[in-house]
Amino acid sequence: MHIRTATKGDLPAILEIYNDVLLTSTAIYDDQPSSLEERLDWFEGRVQQGFPVLVAEQDGTVLGFASYGPWRARWGYRFTVEHSVHVHVDHRGAGIGKALLSALIPIARAAGLHVMVGGIDAENLNSIRFHERFGFVQVGHAKEVGRKFDRWLDLVTMQLFLDHPANLPVGS
Predict the structure, then answer these.
(1) To 10 degrees, what angle do helices 11-24 and 36-48 make?
(2) What digits encode the pLDDT tens for the residues 133-172?
(3) Which residues pair with 2 in a beta bridge?
(4) What would the 3-class secondary structure string for the chain be?
(5) pLDDT for 78-94, tens place per residue?
(6) What residues contact residue 161 under an 8 Å CB cut-off, 6+ apart?
(7) Which fold has domain 2-167?
(8) Is there a smaller number of Cβ atoms within 10 Å at the N or the C end of the chain?
(9) In 10 A of CB 117, how many CB atoms?
(10) Residue 153 vs residues 12, 26, 140, 150: alpha-carbon distances, Å
(11) Residue 163 burial (CB count, 10 A)
(12) What angle do CA 116, 23, 70 make, to 5 degrees?
């Protein structure tokens, strides 16, 4: 497996992964599957804004993808980004998410960003633990702010300081 920059040719696989996550979990608070045109708009928006879109690939198959984009649109938030990492259902638990986030964080650091934020469904304890292993800390818990599958959902906000000495790789 290797991590590389995504291309437009990866969008059908990214769409498949995204829609599966959307339809089967509370990792994405939406109820309508995305279209290839919407994923293309998302991809082109990321590229135009200088944000990365990465894929994990093995033998020509996209196993997962990761990206980050603006956390909030206002100028004062320009050093903070929100990330997402999604792995194909058949390849979860194999270290692909770890490889993707391990590649994404240094890109954010090299871009001079200060904070990376993740919004995680409060019941997704595996994702919360996953982020904690990278040094993310919980900074918020918003109760019943989302609704999906006929129930209210709590959203946990986690953040990682990208430029604090304690969060930098050894030797930085």
Answers:
(1) 110
(2) 999 999 999 999 999 999 999 999 999 999 876 665 544 4
(3) 57
(4) CEEEECCHHHHHHHHHHHHHHHHHCCCCCCCCCCCHHHHHHHHHHHHHCCCCEEEEEECCEEEEEEEEEECCCCHHHCCEEEEEEEECHHHCCCCHHHHHHHHHHHHHHHCCCCEEEEEEECCCHHHHHHHHHCCCEEEEEEEEEEEECCEEEEEEEEEEECCCHHHCCCCC
(5) 999 999 999 999 999 99
(6) 114, 115, 167
(7) Aminopeptidase (3.40.630)
(8) C
(9) 19
(10) 29, 8, 14, 10
(11) 14
(12) 20
CA distance 50 to 37: 20
Q: Is 28 left (phi over 0), alpha (psi -120 to 50) or beta?
A: beta
For tokens 């946990």, the residue is 156
Both tokens of 132, joined, read 């904690």
